[in-house]
Amino acid sequence: MALFARKLLPYLMFPLLMSGGIGMTFWLMSLGQSPLKAFGLVSIGFVALVFMLEKWLPARSDWVASDGQELNDIGHGLFGTGLGAVSGEALSSWVFGAIALWTAAHLGYGLWPSQLAFGLQVVLVYLLADLGRYIQHRLMHRYEFLWRYHALHHSVNKMGVLKNSRSHFVERFFQPICMFGLIILLGAPAEVVFWYIMPNSFLGILDHSNLDVRIGPLSYLVNGPAEHRLHHSRDLKEGNSNFGSALVLWDLIFGTYLNPRPHLTPQAVGIENDSMPTGFAAQLAEPFLAHKPEAAEA
Length: 298
Known about the structure:
This protein is an all-alpha fold. 63% of the residues lie in helices and 0% in strands. The protein is globular.
């Protein structure tokens, strides 16, 4: 029975955690919390819970030990992912939102297909946002002057939940512009976009964790933990794949999808001959000071 439970748990983790995160967010909103505050509070709890669970049910036991970068990871989460993303989202909303209002006023109607059912509008947001992220992500692996900002995220020797937000301010500033610029320009309602941001953020936390999470048949649609671990592989034949954020669709279309089934996992993650400094301030400054070897063509 214990062995059966151990084999079943990885498949239960995904629906339980995802539904729990989404449910808690809407529960807080029903109590009067703003969507942003509710989502932020639940995200903190989600990370803390996964951090504890991955010690108990790790995908790989050799990733359990500390790599000495936890405080830096938290710092990059607050400054890079937090402040960078908020700044990029604010700029996107201000610039593209103003253009959308101006366009709607002059045309007499908005460009977003608001006549579609809510669910179809959410699907459209997923397709467009993931395409924007796919393009940005693939370009960052292709060109050295972009790779130097993305390298911080790949400069790890293990996967863990704190690695999800280990990103440089510059990358995270431009990420919401690439993902949501067109969507905001078309005039997509905020409540529709929220249905992409919230679940995809929880998915990203699981994708970078060392928690043994398996998504079964959903892996033919969703860019899950197994797919994303391959993207972090030190072997570029594996690493130059699976660039999508929530979906595998654009990787399938553009030929960059790598199937992790049944047992394909990276032998090592990170960057070969990694020269990333160990200090937080040095890591922030590194893209502006050092010339990295050109990233391999994706």
